[in-house]
Amino acid sequence: MNTLSRAIRLLGLSCAVSVLALALPAAAQDALTFSYQGTLTDGDGAAVDGQRAVSFRIYDAGEGGEAIWSETHEALEVVGGLLTAEVGSVMPIENLPTDSGLYMGVTIGDEPEISPRVVIGPALRARWATAAAQTHDVAGQDIHPASVSIGDTPVIDAEGNWVGPVEGLRGPQGPQGIAGADGLQGAAGPAGPQGAQGAQGAAGERGLPGQNIVLDRDQDQDGTPDWVEVMLGYDPADAASAPIDDNGDGVPDLMVGPMGTRGSRGPRGVNGPQGIQGEGGPQGSVGPVGPAGPQGLRGERGPQGLRGQAGASVVIDLDTDLDGFADWLENALNSNPLDGASVPVDADNDGIADALRGLQGPKGDQGAQGDLGPQGLQGAVGSQGDQGIQGPAYDLATDTDGDGVADWIELMAGTDPAAIDDVPADGDQDGVADILRGPAGPQGVAGGAGPVGPAGQDGLTPLTDLFVETIALGGGAVAIPRADAAGIDVSLDVGVEGIIEAGSFSVALDITHPDLSQLSITIIAPDATAYSLIDGPSSGVGGVDLNVNIPGDLAPLSDFEAQGSSVVGKQAQGRWILRIIDTDLGNPDALRSLNGFSIAFTRRAGGAWRLMGDLHVQGNVYAQNSCTMQPASDNGVAIPGIFEMVCGNNAPIRLYGYSCGNGQLDPGESCDDGNQAAGDGCDTRCIAE
Hints:
By secondary structure, this protein is mainly β. Among the domains are: 6-132, Immunoglobulin-like; 313-357, no CATH class; 394-438, no CATH class; 466-604, Galactose-binding domain-like (Jelly Rolls, Sandwich); 615-656, no CATH class. It has helices at residues 121-133, 226-231, 327-332, 407-413, and strands spanning 6-10, 13-23, 33-41, 50-59, 69-79, 82-87, 103-108, 118-119, 148-150, 153-156, 463-464, 466-472, 478-479, 484-494, 499-500, 506-512, 519-524, 530-535, 546-550, 574-582, 593-604, 610-611, 627-634, 637-647, 653-656. The strands form 6 sheets. It has an 8-stranded antiparallel beta sheet. The chain is elongated.
């Protein structure tokens, strides 16, 4: 990644914004567009290929606020990590304010918008002004066309080169004069009367050269060269419009990006063909330069002279001495572009001249451990290896040397599980071996010291004993007897063991009935505690039919967590009874049935654990007994994603074939927002926060 880019990490992708260029409309009535180019890499720094959805938004503030213009490119092609978009090609850029700052935000897919936003106001306003200037009557004025044609014959191309007929336009070639120092531009002489067209004369003396482009020119004296301000979208003529440089090192912040993983150096491309050297006119003698006088009044513009021969083209990647540094860079850094032994200083031999890097900033404070990144894509399955020798079976809880670290962890860390004084490293003394944490990323180039961010959450174990359960009645609808004081009891057997957690218990009912005000519904827990759900008119329930979740849609008459009778802390396992009493004496022909009944709760299991993620086994899995595996069931109904493994005479072991963070609500989860980050309402275990 070069030093004229800034990088952002998005879901394991790295996006580098390398150039923002504005393209002038082809005609005044066309909408303004500009090009956006960046690079996308994955978490390992490898270039990304494929299509990505990219959204662009323009704001009138650098932070916050609502977008005043936006468009989305649904499927931009990314080839070799390179992403290019023509901003304004989907939605015309029109009716933007001209008296306030303009900033552009970029979003890759569904990820947060890249920060900070790019300043585009000065460059857009400059292009608007240029486009507006091209729309008025140019009679009697100077014009600057992109190309010139006479009839259907082009005579001057977009590069300013004469491409029309040359017969009669060029005199004989004069001898090459000795190049002298640039002199002052002489004042234009008065225009003589236009005479009749004469025969083509000999070539006149070569005029004085015009002003050269100076790389360190700074016309608004704000400390930033004009070419840098133009490239970053600031006004080079306005000292108040200058790139941000928070650490005051003289290098704009947008030109200093984080140092990514250095890739291998690619092969050098083949140089393009050298342009044809134009014929030069004879060089006149240059007199001594006198003191500069006061600026005189601008004279009238003389008639346009014939275009001189084109000079040598400037090739950006030209490297005459083949020393690995372009000629323009060697000229800028005062090394000889014609001498392979004269090269810019490159102390670390990384191919980037040291002068192009800013000063090393002070080392910032150590940031808090960030959240675990998303699971990478599953790699292709390798070929089956040879069967290894069966190793000894290990109990995961075994700690042979009694040092507080399980043997399997010590084996993975390379320490002796039988030596109490040989334990895995635990640098922060948090009881978790350092080997169980992911490796630190490569050290990036240190920027200016920023404020210390908020501390991230401590790492959590991948195991949890919390399970989210929904137990539903099977077997179809159950008829409700009319005008029967004894009512009907419907049983729901819960076969899973565990203590009910606070705020998790709910009852779902689907009932067909002509007059709900005549119903009394109670649920009775396995310990015989009764909770009144609906009691006719006293519940405020009326009308026909009922399809609710209690307490989500309707508050029960008896609080599930009332002191002294709370379901919290009760054993979930056992028989739950739903008692329905119908006191309706009318509507003898109406349908009355319980169509659906389920209870949902989060339980803390006493002897079961759930792995929050995929279990990947590189070797074989061995058991000391013969084991069988079959789908788990509840009341004879198979539970999707759950299997029971029975080994010998041991109690069944439940295996859960789902993954926290897959965006689907699997058994054992109370939420799944598609990630394993905490602090967004759903924690790393897919339990609601």
